[in-house]
Design goal:
The protein is α/β, with parallel strands linked by helices and 236 residues long. 42% of the residues lie in helices and 15% in strands. It is built from eight helices and six strands; from the N terminus they run E-H-H-E-H-H-E-H-E-H-H-E-E-H. The longest helix has 22 residues.
Length: 236
Amino acid sequence: MAVDKEKLPVHIGFIMDGNGRWALKRGLPRKMGHREGAKAFRKIARYCKDIGIKYITFYAFSTENWKRPKEEIDEIMRLFGEYLDEAEDFRKDRTRLLFLGDKSAFDEKLRNRMTELEEASAEFDQMTLMLAMNYGGRDEIVRAAERAAEMVLNKEIKLSDIDEKLLGSLMYTGGIPDADLIIRPSGEKRISNFLTWQSAYSELYFTDVLWPDFTSKELDKALEDYASRSRRFGGV
């Protein structure tokens, strides 16, 4: 990696797109693309840790993805369960795990495992890895607004206390820096309801490479591009 570590983003968001198309291009069932995409996820997560990225978020399954064929959803959930079973590696890596999204839609085993991993890794500080599962950015904002309204009704806060800082703290990512860089492979040029609140000033990077083919070299290209940009946050 040629990028100066001082110019690396603190928080990268990845939209893992293109698994199905990767498989179809090869005459394979879509679920095979998700299997290869899961391998790419592991490799990229490891590489991010190795180069010193502090926070990474992967968009794994959106609130809209339930509309997909049952066979494809079942494969995604199976792969997710496999990852949760293997996630004990976070102990030696001191990686904190967080799962962004509404857990209630998952079966009890998956819900319990997600909660266990979050609690067991809560104090780890080498890196924070977040998986967005059953996640939607607008849904997250609505939930934060509902929580703020409850706090007003319960007289925990006054209406005038509701500001960006408070709402930000009520997001799934409360206490975590907003995304500096969002990367989307597959040729699509939109963020698709991912980190809607947290991406207000994110740099966006798009590539035609499909997610299963997204390697550390591809990430280096994105990081080099990011390092070349001037981030003014509305200033001059």
